[in-house]
Write a structure and sequence with these properties.
mainly alpha
């Protein structure tokens, strides 16, 4: 079975989590999707970048989620989610996926 890059999983978690939260009007479901993406990505991060790299990428992902909220007030919700998803995916690629 082909490995799905963690950059794609993480970006899908952010984007899909937002879409799910918006569609259901339940932010907790969006957070659950985001958390599931982190849990799914963590083993790849650990294998490629070690514990420190995995912790850094988890921090980037959680930070992106936090930054997306105030950024949405400035540029809109979907552009904010797209921007933080792109930055997070790029970080995952550079730190973990490129090495795999």
């Amino acid at each position: 079975m082909a490995r799905i890059p963690s950059s794609l999983i993480t970006a899908a978690g952010l984007t899909g989590g937002f879409a799910l939260a918006r569609a259901t009007r339940k932010r907790q479901l969006g957070g659950l999707a985001f958390g599931a993406a982190l849990v799914a990505s963590a083993p790849q991060w650990r294998k490629a970048a070690g514990n420190a790299g995995a912790a850094a990428l988890a921090g980037v992902s959680i930070g992106a989620l936090a930054v997306s909220h105030p950024l949405a007030k400035k540029i809109g919700a979907w552009p904010s989610v797209a921007a933080v998803s792109a930055v997070t995916a790029a970080a995952c690629y550079v730190v973990a996926d490129r090495r795999a």
